[in-house]
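Pipeline run #58 for the internal structure catalog. This entry was flagged by the ingest filter as a single-chain record with no existing model, so it goes straight to prediction. Upstream metadata was stripped on purpose; only the residue string is passed forward. Reviewer on rotation: M.T. Logging verbosity set to normal.
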Amino acid sequence: MADSSHGHTPAAWTGVIIAFIGFCVSGAFMVMDQPVGFWAGMVLVIGGAVVGGIMRLMGLGQQKRSAVGQRTTPAATREPAGAES
């Protein structure tokens, strides 16, 4: 798990920042009892997901792991993770 770069990409950061701004806008307008502003903020939240997805498709997201580097030996024959030879 430590070797993964989960969320450390421009696509993830941009999508989360836009969604967070939308969340803040929605929260502020909900307190002010302004439904139109609330729904505008919700559109920003959805827009963050869309922008993050588009950026990932453009190659700015986490790359998929290839099957070449993965272990192919059965789990029963592997050494424990912390074992030293």
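catalog note: Residues 15 and 49 are 6 Å apart (CA to CA).
catalog note: The first helix runs from residue 10 to 31.
status: ready for reviewer M.T.
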